[in-house]
Amino acid sequence: MTTTHAPDAARILDIATGYMASQQLFEASRIGLFAAIADGADTIEAIAVRCGVSERIARILVDAMAAKGLLVRTDARYTVADDAAAYLTGAEAQVDLAPFLTFLGEISYPHWLQFGHTVDTTEPGDLQMDDARWATFMAGVMTYNRLHAQEFGRHLDLTGATRALDFGGLSAEFALSVMAGNPGLHTTFVYAPGFEDGIADAVEAAGVADRTAVEVGDTATATPRGEYDLVYANHVIHRFTAEENAQIFRNLRAAAVDGATLTVLDFFLDDDADQRGLDALHAGEYLVIDGTVVYPEAQVRGWLDDAGWKVHDKVALPGSPRVLLATAV
Q1: Concatenated DSSP letters for 266-295?
Q2: Rounded to two decimals, what is the model's pTM?
């Protein structure tokens, strides 16, 4: 058999061994490896002592992280790459992703070991949750949301709005990131029962209580009232059925003035020439974890069109979901 013109298998092997890199990243985060190096422990010996592991383990982890670009190795000394410094160095990080990595290692990864069952049945795995695992779950999800909110504030210009409605999301930080750059913006939060105290605390901590209102309503059925020129439906649609989402967007259109902007932040299965990988991977993640849905973008656009929203842009947030931007017509 001749293989002269056969393509190499590097891409296949990179995908197939991806769990090896993720497991080493989780453990490097757990033992504080990136923080130790950022703090000056830049040799194998010093890293091992600072992290409380053997030199063999230290060498395995730092070389794996260097191979993936999160560390830089120069003459047997290691430094932290810029992205790792921003997100993996603990208290010094811009957003400390450690709780999210713990969630991936302790909750998500074991669920993926049940993915064969999910493929055969289209059913999620068994979470087997107790209070401690729920705490890990929520800490991880809310940490990842914090990254999403940071990128939302960075990449979207929503400064012209005066009255915003944040509807049914999971975190106040999206709205707060926009309010930080728009001192004239008033925001009404309408969240499901049980979220109101956390929203009120976040608003108070941000110092914008005088520009906010917090209301409670079931996301699938609530009919907010107002004349909003900016509406957020962030991290909403994957949690509801197609019928419920169609109604949600109709209810939001009824609360918006003509020309208002709607943001729909979530993962989407697209029809682009190249499917965005992060979204496609999360379609499996959402299903195997709890049965929620990453919807096709075309289906979401259909709901929006039917409700009186016209999509005018799509923004991919780095390391985060995408945002459909629509106008009330």
Answers
A1: E--B--SSS--HHHHHHHHHHHHHH-----
A2: 0.94
